[in-house]
Structures are given as C-alpha cells and as structure tokens.
Amino acid sequence: MRAAPKGSLREEAINWTRWIGVYAHLLAETTIGLLSCVGTKCFRVWFYAVDCGGKMNSGGNGMDLMRRDIAICTRLLVDVDILEYSGHISSRLPSGDEFLIQPVDDVRSNLEPSRLLVVGLDGCVIQGEGKPPSETAIHAEIYKARPDVKAVAHFHHDPTTMFSMVVDRPLLPMKNHAVRWPDGVPIHPDASHISSIEQGQELARTMGDCNAVLLRGHGEVVVAENIKALFADIVHFVENAKALADAGLLGEIVPLTREDLEGFEATFDRDKHARKLWSYYTVTAANKGVIPLEWLDD
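^ thats the sequence. predicted structure below, dont judge the formating
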C-alpha cells in the first residue's frame, strides 16, 4: 500500500487511529456530546469510546444502573397495583439539566432500560426513540423548581386520589413512614392533564417544599432523592392513605403529631430502609418473573 503523503488528511487520520489504539485500554468510558438545536427540535450526537471488551458503551455503569432502576421501579409499581397503563417514573441525570423517562407508548409492565429517553428540562428529547409522555412537564418543571429532587413519579392510584375529592378530609400522617409529609399533602386544583410548561410550573408551586402532591380528581406526584428512595416513599404514601381511610371507618382519627414524627425520624435510617424495601420487592418480583433475575443487585 502506498504511504500517505506527509501532512495529508489521510496521514493525520492514520495517526489519530494509532493514538486511539494505544490509549483505548486506558479509557473505561468516554462520552462526548454535541448538542445542536434546529428550530424547536434538539438532536444530540454521541461519540462513544470502545472499551477493552470491544463493546460500545452507552453511558457507563452509572447510566446503565439508573436505567435499570427506573425499569425495575416501574415494573414493581405495576405488580403492586399502584401503576397501570399510564403514569411514569423519571430520574435526573448528573448533569442536572437532563433526565431519563420512558416513551409514552411503552407498556409499563414490560419496560426495558434501553428504551428510556434522555430529555432536557425544556421537554426536548435528546437521545432515544419515541415521544416522551404528554405530562413530561410535571417532571421538567419540578426539576427546575426543586434542585434537591433527583427522582419523580406520577401515578393514578384511585384509593389515594379520593382524598382530593372530599371536603375536610386532608391526607394526614397516620403511620410513621409518613414522616416525609409531616404537615399533610397539598392538593393541586387543576384536574386536567399537566401538559404545558405553565401547568407544570403551577403544579410545582402547589407542591412547594412538600415531597408529594395530590392532583384533584387525577392522581399523585411523589419526589425523592433517588429511585430506590422514591419507590419506598410511594409504597408508604399509598399505605398511609389506606390506613387513614380504614381508620376513619372505625372512629375518630388520631394522626401522628410533628413531635411523634420527629421522634421517629431521630432513629430512622432512610437509606437503609429504602434498600431493605428494594431488596424485598425486587427478589419477590424476580421469583415471579416480573423482572429478570440478572437485574437484581449483587
């Protein structure tokens, strides 16, 4: 083969190829993103380094685990009759201005990690195939308003939603794990789909610093610091609503006071508890075939 002339583009390309070959084994993962926007649509072009096994890395272990946890959380919530044909889970990416969320038409009970979309806070799909949910503004506007929030769930659990349908029956803390909502849960008055930026902003204002909000005649939104904690909070959120409804049938309710909840919180290891619930529900789900065994934590 004829040698490339010195200084030619071909020689430069060859040199770059050799350089990558020498240093590829040092790169566990490298992602370079080029974002360009045309009109109202955004496109992100990703370049991935090849790891030592010769596989294309689609975001590294952190991204892979986040995708897996969202898929697991979604399937678990379907399995325990909290999530159905609608509703969605999201998780903020480390960049802070992007999040993962499922495509609108993917079946929740069969959600795959690879199907999750990367979406910007403007609702623009950056990476992935399909359209985001029509209520993506719920997630985007809460992430904008609440830098502390790393995971958001929107679902429609009728036994819980009914607390937005009655007068003088606020969703008060009845069980100790309702420590996440010590002052009760606000009710957002807009019963329609939260599909616009303005509606999302109004919802975020209703939620304020609370970690949950009821949407009148519609559903719920719960937020947390990660997916595993979010799952635990959702389980306890609907448990607390059921406890309140059942207790009201027996007689006058006696909700937990702030002093009660502060005493509980003083000895409560939230991270340990979230991991305990996650372990129980994921192993149970894997045994039933709801999630693959290989998705379980080591």
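Residues 31 and 200 are 31 Å apart (CA to CA).
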